Amino acid sequence: MSSPRDRLVAVPRRRSAAEILRSVPPRDRARLRRLDLNLDDPADAELFVQGVRVADEAIAEEARRDAERS
Predict the structure, then answer these.
(1) Average pLDDT of the segment spanning 47-67
(2) Domain total for the chain?
(3) Residue 27 lies in domain
(4) Nearest-angstrom CA–CA distance, 37 and 30
């Protein structure tokens, strides 16, 4: 029988905007610029960071649901 402790899922810490932006390699930045998203522009960078955070939260939620099922 498994205990509730066996089902704990590590919650990733929220990454800072600077950390997220630093993680984007130059090649990907160039691709984003071709799509009219310039990460050197504060408004574009904020939009990008918000999107990454939403994706991170969705991935964490899916991991929690998977852990509950097992």
Answers:
(1) 93
(2) 1
(3) 14-69
(4) 9
